[in-house]
Amino acid sequence: MTESGSALAETLARDGIEVSHEGAYPIAAPASEAEVVAIVERAARDGLKVLPIGLGTKLDFCRPEAAEGACDLALSMRKLRDVVAYEPGDGTLTARAGARMGELARTVLAGGHRLTPDVPHPDEATLGGVLGASQSGPDRTRFGPVRHHVLGVRVVRSDGTIAKSGGRLVKNVTGFDLHRLYCGSRGTLCVVLEASLRLFAEPEREAALTATYPAARPALEAAEAVRALPIAPLAVTLEGVDEDFRLHVFLAGHSEQVRWEADEVERVLGDAERRDDEGARCHRALVRDLGRRNGRWPAFRMVCLPSQLPSAIDSTRDFAGARGLQPRFLAQPFAGIVDVFLPGDAATEPESFVALASELRDLLAPAEVRLDPLAVPAAVHRALARTNDEGPAARWMTRLRESFDPAGTFASPLFPCRA
Amino acid sequence: MDRRTLDRLASIVGEAGIVADRMRRLAYESDGLTLEREMPELVLLPRDTDETARCMRVLHEAGIPVVPRGAGTGLSGGATPVPGGVTIGTARMRDVLEVNASDRYAIVQAGVVNIAISRACAKHGLFYAPDPSSQKACTIGGNVAENAGGPHCFRYGSTTRHVLGLVIVTAEGEVLDLSHPVADPDGYDLIGLFTGSEGMFGLATEITIQLTPMPAATQTLLAIFPSLDAACESVTDIIAARLEPSAIEILDKLTIQAVEASVFAAGYPTDAEAVLLLDIEGGELEVETTVKGIEPILARHGRLELRSARDAEERERLWAGRKGAFGAMGRIAPDLYVADVVVPRTRLREIVRLATDECTKRGLKMSNVFHAGDGNLHPNISYDRRDPDEVERVLAAGRAIMQACVDVGGSLTGEHGVGLEKQEQMKLLFSPADLAAMDLARVALDPDRRMNPGKMLPLRACMETRTRPIPGGMRAEEARP
């Protein structure tokens, strides 16, 4: 914990703002927008670094190193969790950043709507955290990434001013889409106060089909056959390890259509286990929650073209296997995304982990497979972070960050570029 | 512009890529918002990214403002030239560079016409979903700049949901290659920020777009109504019932009559007060179920007749009428002001009435054709721009309609962009702090504010300035090489 962070925490506590000391830095939990503004203004004035968080479940994605003075205080939005407006007639929802995704999903379900993204462990995920990490769930197969459905946001900028972008309308091109920029910016540009999302109709019926395969490649071939069908699955997820892979296909929609689609998918998959309605919903939740296993996020995310998935998974399996590691994969084949879980003790020797990550990235790069570090030691984040002189894209990102946060108040030293 | 600069530009693009002659430059003095006109100093038509980047570097060194331009079909003045500025058009960048059917994307040059993309990938059972009414003329580069919409964006979303990658030439002439199509950005979502930025961050020369599988089944319905109110209320109820057609469009009586008297005649009944045009797409059973859900809603609101397109030909004719509606308005008056406001979908009827009243009390002729499902209204005011008094009344009505939309939680533009037309109205919707945040992005990516200056952001609020001709410079035709 930094000295200045402790001093700020004490001052905030004296002002009546809740501050806890659970980890490497104090966590302030403001109870109003005015308190959020006060914290940011104070930090900016004193030259301190603040890390905006929700419940702190995704800190691994971009962990700042308090020991190096990269973060003085975390600002948790967990107490600002109201629904600002649910408009069933318009199919939109506006909520504060600390609202739990599970609560929001239940709120709109009462009006016949479905919230996307359906993220792992939704009662432990806040709206602001999901937007900051641009986190998706398996339902991105049908709905796409969350940034497509953010209609607008209100934020606190690094100088403490409140600004909005977009609105609460399902169609709107007025002004720059700053809300899309903020989505996935991991708290480096602003603190999100509230956001509006587009909703979808809750389906009449759901079905789930699961088939088992001895390797990733035949499972992905089956996924490709499903993709060729004239249907739009809600989610298609591949998960497995070693010689044990399962392909899950989730369908949702009008009753008759879902029944027909389930028959078609069953025909393609062959020997598949089929679940309907409540069974399908429970199974969907189980598979969704595999995104964070035993409290841990995946070590890496591979992002590539869907056609590159089989070779990306095979290469990673072989590479890790040669080093005595057995990675577990969780993939969204239609999106070209694979999460890679490594055994819990893989990170015990950070130096060898850095070497492994760097080599794996180099191995995958020729096939244009991108390797993003998620829950890995800070040293790996540092090793894989790009620097701001690595081309025009990095320079644009650096310029945006410097423009939105000239004093460097929002702490996240390795994203999007190494500071 | 000095001769040396002109010579350098000419050596890059060649004779075919430079428009210096005054008569030829006249064609570039406005886009579809003909109320705003300005003669560009010079027009450049580079052939590819490399030529564009080289031109941009020369213009950067000379400090000359740049206005990007696609086909010039925009309706908000986004491509209106600026004094002393150079317009860079994408008319010669018309190649479809790659169609990848297995990964469902295409890479095209910015000047490719919207509908040409769907034609290029139709043999693979794929199409490009955003379908602005001008899709037979507008270019994908312009679509990206304005985040263009279209009737079927109700289901598929606007352009931004379909852009997977971009090659951008920056204000300084650097090439930013973000063309590789992957699911999530590496760092900030620069592509999402760029889309809809109205040419103020740079110029996109290549676009990687997502292709969508053609639906298994499509049914097109035409519901005929005795009143515009009833048509609007039907739409509100369809949305509230969470039914999801892919397009929901309303045309009022004046529009119907103009369409039916034009080459776009679609067989709409000319005595109807309004028609509702719906496309329902998806699996066959899904389409059947959705239609069954919609029919009683239409009946409850007193529809006079419900037609269903019998085949693809009839479907195409019904949609040709809708998409040709703006063109057909030329029969009513020489000029057309197309407003583009958005309201919550529960307030459709109220705002349509208000727009009618605002025009009626100013003695203006207004027709309605709009994307009802998205709450995106297009009150179209027919006028003659040679009549200054009528022009003033048109602009006043436009302002009143925008104010009314903002008052009910709506917005200034759903798909046409802000451009010059709605620039001052930005202050109705956004506070100085909101606009200052937008300006942070502007100055980060174009510190000299040379890319499409004087657009979108209100002039004083954001230090945005209208440019003036460079003193002492010579007109392009005088300095022609």
Q: What is the CATH domain class of the largest domain in chain A?
A: Alpha Beta
Instruction: Tell me the span between the first and last alpha carbons of chain B.
Output: 12 Å
Number of domains of chain B: 4
Give me the CATH architecture of the largest domain in chain B, please: 2-Layer Sandwich
Average of pLDDT of chain A: 93
**Helix content, binned percent of chain A:** 25-40%
Number of strand elements of chain B: 20
Q: Radius of gyration of chain B in whole Å, from Cα?
A: 23 Å
Low-confidence stretches of chain A: none
Largest sheet properties of chain A: 8 strands, antiparallel
Walk me through what this model shows.
The complex is a heterodimer of chains A (419) and B (481). Chain A has 419 residues and is of the alpha+beta class. Chain A folds into 3 domains: 1-202 and 386-419, Uridine Diphospho-n-acetylenolpyruvylglucosamine Reductase, domain 3; 205-289, Alpha-Beta Plaits; 300-384, Alpha-Beta Plaits. Chain A is built from 13 helices and 19 strands. Chain A has helices at 3-14, 33-46, 101-109, 127-133, 140-143, 178-182, 216-227, 255-269, 277-289, 309-322, 350-364, 378-384, 392-404, and strands at 18-20, 27-29, 50-53, 73-76, 83-87, 92-96, 113-114, 150-156, 162-166, 191-198, 200-201, 205-213, 235-241, 244-253, 272-276, 300-303, 328-332, 337-341, 370-373. In chain A, a hairpin with a 5-residue loop joins β8 and β9. The radius of gyration of chain A is 22 Å and the shape is globular. Chain B is 33% helix and 20% strand. In chain B, the strands form 5 sheets. Chain B has a 7-stranded antiparallel β-sheet, sandwiched between helices. Chain B has a 5-stranded antiparallel β-sheet with strand order 5-6-10-8-9, with helices on both faces. Chain B has a 4-stranded mixed β-sheet with strand order 1-2-4-3. Chain B is globular and about 70 Å long. The chains are: A alpha+beta (419), B alpha+beta (481). Chains A and B meet through β9, α6, β11, α8 and α13 of A and β9, α7, α8, α10 and α16 of B.
